[in-house]
Amino acid sequence: MPRRHDDLYARIAAFGALREAALAAVRGKRRKPGAAAFMANLEHELLRLERELLDGSYRPGGYSTFEVREPNRRFISAAPFRDRVVHHALCAVVAPLFERGFIDGSFANREGKGTHRAIARFERFRDRYRCVLRCDIHRYFPAIDHAVLKADLRRRVRCTQTLALLDAIVDGSNPQEPVDAYFPGDDLFAPYARRRGLPLGNLTSQFFANVYLDPLDHYAKEVLGARGYLRYVDDFALFHDDVRVLEAWRERIAAFLEKRRLLLHARKTHIAATGEPARFLGFELLPGGRRRLPEDNVRRFRNRLRGLRDRWRHGSVEQSEILCRVNAWIAHARHADTERLRHALFRGGWFDPLWGDDGSAALAPRAA
Questions:
Q1: Residues 6+ apart with CB under 8 A from 42
Q2: Residue 292, SS3?
Q3: Does an H or E element contain 321, and which?
Q4: Rounded-to-integer distance, Cα 368 and Cα 348, Å
Q5: Which residues are CB-contacts of 153 (< 8 A; sequence separation ≥ 6)?
Q6: pLDDT at 350
Q7: Using one digit for the tens of pLDDT, what is the confidence trace for 38-81?
Q8: What's the rounded Cα separation, in Å, for the pair 311 and 71?
């Protein structure tokens, strides 16, 4: 039985903790109106937030939602900046309590993990085993059940005030895409009576997503005995030499997830030979350790590059933001065989790049 922690709330609601949380939340967002207004009157805003948290009057605000169509259609929700400060302060205290129990093979939204380490682990298992069971969860974030999540949070948190704050954030989630699914024991109205769904875009949602699937990680490793297992959010893989073992695992995982009111994605869950090319976390992984960026990934970046160029010409974006985004993409692309692609995009496109020794770009946009 994991240890349950008490006396956490004072560390979350303290002025100093909220100040550190505000500085973390504002990184890369200083030009956003909500963040700029909060930081311009920082001491007053933090004192007001501290008072509301301590007297129990704090309530999360409403979300601003916008649609993203690439790579898949989904809705991103932005909480008010003051709520994001609370999210950072909360996660700074609570997340480490759960981090201690997470398995090594969980890679999303964790310090020292991330996309590229997950890909390296996938390739290592691929080279060791003959077959892989690739799994994905049907509409994961919209399907997360609030009652199940709250029970998971109570496995390690006993502090009454902290639980009330966690519950307020979960309950304050805005409506998500409907996931009308029935599970054993449900009556006719169960899918409509139960609260479900977390907003994409929240730091807390990323943390809750790991907490919600942590029991699956332990089930795969400790009950199924899957030595070759890794997960990144709701994309997970199990490796074995015997297809029949993977087929049995798929059935048992589906039954386990049903108890957590989740369904495997019918189209994205399949068994394949590890010798075949595989797409994983934005890369095409090829035999021999080679990696390639998918064409749709490159197309999306070229569209964003075009948008940055147009915004620069209209004076609505600074060069520093362009450099940040371009260098981030280059850092990502450098993990694949993309030297010729990067040369074509930047040396033959809309920008005059000055390449550093590390391959990063210092770009000066051409005059219109």
A1: 19, 22
A2: strand
A3: helix 319-333
A4: 16
A5: 163, 166, 208, 211
A6: 44
A7: 999 999 999 999 999 999 999 999 988 877 766 677 778 889 99
A8: 22
- Higher model confidence: residue 22 or residue 313? 22
Residue with the bigger pLDDT between 208 and 325: it is 208
What tokens appear for 235 in the block? 């994309």
| Tens-digit pLDDT profile for residues 214-236 | 999 999 999 999 999 999 999 99
Q: What is the dihedral of CA 229, 235, 240, 244, to 10 degrees?
A: 130
Helix (H, G, I), strand (E, B) or coil at 201: coil
Helix (H) or strand (E) holding 273, with range, is: strand 270-273
- Measuring CA to CA, which residue among 69, 45, 52 is closest to residue 12? 52
Instruction: Name the strand (E) or helix (H) holding 275.
Output: none
Residue 200 · residue 74 · CB < 8 Å: yes
Backbone angles phi, psi at 7, to 5 degrees: 55, 50
pLDDT in tens, 244-264: 999 999 999 999 999 999 999
Tally the residues of the chain.
368
Residue-wise pLDDT tens digits, 155-190:
999 999 999 999 999 999 988 888 888 898 888 888
123: Cα within 13 Å, side-chain hemisphere: 17
Cα separation, 51 vs 12, whole angstroms: 12
How many angstroms separate the CA atoms of 105 and 94, rounded? 21
Give burial (CB, 10 Å; 0-12/13-18/19+) of 77.
buried
Query: Three-state SS string across 97-158, please?
Result: HHHCCCCCCECCCCCCCCHHHHHHHHHHHHHHCCEEEEEEECCHHHHCEHHHHHHHHCCCEC
Q: Are 142 and 66 in contact (CB under 8 A)?
A: no
